[in-house]
Amino acid sequence: MLLSDEEKWKVAIDCDSSYDGQFFYGVKTTGIFCRPSCKSKSPKRDHMVFFDTAEQAQAAGFRPCKRCRPDLLKFEPKRETIEGIKKVIGKFYTDPKQLKEEIEGLGVSKNSMIRLFQDQLGMTPVQYINKLRIEKAKELLLNSQDTVLYIALQCGFGSLSTFYRLFRRLVGMSPTQYVRFFLKRKDKK
After folding, report:
1. Fold of 5-64
2. Which residues are tagged catalytic?
């Protein structure tokens, strides 16, 4: 179904994502083009021009919006944001102080981050961090001669009791039982 320019304008004003990829609009006053779902401030109707493809918009001299990224085939801002947060967490999860600073530097509010993690991963950021820490601890327990206390601290836990409590909750046994369990399995092979 072909849309008239007036219908396209209405779609753009409503930020209707179901029309993304069907057309693009350029804003003459800014020289920027967007997807119909762009959440930027709605331009005046007489400042808008419509294109069937992103290439047409670029050929007409418009540059892609940095907010809705119409130049990308697939734009998933939530997924990109969560991947960025996961990358920071993956790098700094063993250093709680540095992790806090790095996450604050991303410019994502605590509530938004919690919502994103719940929506995209089905867990909170804290649960995700604890999962990484426990996975690292399991690896160190089996492959190092370090004490349980040293491993707990190395994985970013502030206390041995917190480490034991979380380890037992996530693994179903204490760190010592975990090591014994794997040593028995190894001996049987």
Report:
1. DNA Methylphosphotriester Repair Domain (3.40.10)
2. 34
| Residue listed under structure tokens 């179903």 | 172
Residue with tokens 């992103």: 54
* Tens-digit pLDDT profile for residues 128-186: 999 999 999 999 999 999 999 999 999 999 999 999 999 999 999 999 999 998 888 77
- Which tens digit of pLDDT belongs to each residue from 84-104? 899 999 999 999 899 999 988
Q: For 107, left (φ over 0), alpha (ψ -120 to 50), or beta?
A: left
What is the 8-class DSSP label of residue 33?
E
63-64/24-27 β-pairing: unpaired
> For residue 152, how many other CB atoms are within 10 A of its CB?
24
Q: What is the DSSP string of 77-126?
A: HHHHHHHHHHHHHHHHTT-HHHHHHHHHTTT--HHHHHHHHHHHHSS-HH
In CATH terms, the superfamily for domain 77-188 is Homeodomain-like (1.10.10.60)
DSSP type of residue 3: P
CA pair distance 26, 159, nearest whole angstrom: 56
Domain regions of the chain by residue span: 5-64, 77-188
Q: Are 131 and 170 in contact (CB under 8 A)?
A: yes
